[in-house]
Design goal:
Largest sheet: none
Distance between the termini: 43 Å
Number of strands: 0
GO molecular function: amino acid transmembrane transporter activity
Oligomer: single chain
Structural class: mainly alpha
Membrane topology: Multi-pass membrane protein
Number of helices: 9
Keywords: Cell membrane, Membrane, Transmembrane, Transmembrane helix
Pfam family, one: LysE
Subcellular location: Cell membrane
Strand content: under 5%
Shape: globular
Length: 210
């Protein structure tokens, strides 16, 4: 049995899920930095945001439905994802550092090196599924949702609402800040900051794995 839409418990669970989701998702991590750069480049932003939203929806509701059981049955999955994440983040940090070192233009130059839609969508998949923090967030959402019993799916809906809100903020924000990135120096600073964020995440994950 699940709580109905008119039930006070449904709204309470939804609001709690939204607040929890914003607390977990509204950070400038690997996925957020990737979306911001795609938006500033005007490179398949809608496709990237759609992929991220779809992944969040699938795994938020799957987590509430029993994703935690999967990691308990196959504990090696956690370690495998962690080290894949370290490798992926390290590679992207190096790519960002290279762009920061060799930048030759602003938005116009960025448009000249826009990756294909397929590459952009694969990047969105990688920054979600190869990010151990993503899996940790899903486990947290699943754990907290079960405290609402029959309204746990309302909690999941709230967490997904938070995901959509944060993705919208990233998408709209990247467009609003686009004029500030008309110069090569702004892009070099952005890529330098992204390289630092990715490298720091890779190092912190690697330290957890040793």
């Amino acid at each position: 049995m699940f709580a109905t839409l008119s039930s006070p418990l449904f709204f309470t669970a939804w609001a709690s899920g939204t607040a929890t989701g914003l607390g977990l998702f509204a950070v400038v991590g690997a996925q957020s930095a990737f979306i911001l750069r795609q938006g500033l480049m005007r490179a398949h932003l809608l496709s990237v945001v759609a992929i991220c939203a779809l992944i969040d929806a699938i795994f938020i509701f799957a987590s509430v439905s029993g994703l935690q059981a999967l990691t308990s049955w196959f504990p090696w999955l956690t370690t495998a994802v962690l080290w894949f994440g370290v490798a992926f983040l390290s590679w992207y940090a190096l790519q960002s550092a290279r762009r920061a070192w060799t930048a030759t233009g602003g938005l116009a130059a960025a448009r000249d090196v826009v990756p294909s839609r397929r590459a952009a969508m694969l990047g969105a998949l990688g920054f979600s599924l190869l990010n151990p923090h993503f899996w940790l967030d899903m486990v947290v959402v699943g754990s907290l949702a079960h405290g609402f019993e029959d309204a746990r799916m309302a909690f999941a809906a709230g967490a997904f609402t938070a995901s959509l809100l944060w993705l919208a903020v990233l998408g709209i924000g990247s467009r609003l800040f686009a004029p500030f990135f008309a110069s090569a120096s702004a892009w070099r600073i952005l890529d330098g900051l992204i390289a630092v964020v990715m490298a720091a995440l890779a190092i912190s994950l690697a330290l957890k794995g040793v």
